[in-house]
Amino acid sequence: MRALRRQHRDDGNRAQLHSFWTGLPHATWMDIMPTVKGMPDALVGTGGRDQLIEIKQPGKRLEPEQIAWGGEWRGAMPLLVQTTDDLLQLYRAMRR
After folding, report:
1. Please, are residues 41 and 9 in contact by the beta-carbon 8 Å criterion?
2. pLDDT (tens digit per residue) in 46-94
3. Domain definitions of the chain by residue range
4. Is 31 in contact with 55 (CB distance < 8 Å)?
5. Which 8-state DSSP code applies to residue 37?
6. d(C-alpha 54, C-alpha 78), whole Å
């Protein structure tokens, strides 16, 4: 994995998604400060479970560095999140 050389980019919808998730009952959100290119954006949790998430604007794709990072990661794969509907589906799945 290559070291991060530039500032972490905000995909533009992070604030909206963060506000939505943290407004759900018993839900927590932690922004990840990347130390390696391609790391996911955040770790969310609820119901005793957690999930790495990669935030993208609707219609945007993963960058090559993000795909490469996922290929080297040996834990649960990050989930691509683009909308509040994506987060609501994740929340419901994690609360089961």
Report:
1. no
2. 999 999 999 999 999 999 999 999 999 999 999 999 999 999 999 999 9
3. 14-95
4. no
5. T
6. 6
Instruction: Count how many residues are written for the chain.
Output: 96
Query: Which class is 14-95 in CATH?
Result: alpha beta
Neighbouring-strand partners of residue 87: none
Q: Do residues 95 and 70 lie in contact, with contact meaning Cβ atoms separated by under 8 Å?
A: no
pTM surpassing 0.70? yes
- Nearest CA-CA partner of 14 in 37, 49, 40, 36: 40
Distance CA 40, CA 18 (A): 14
- Alpha-carbon distance 8 to 23, whole Å? 24
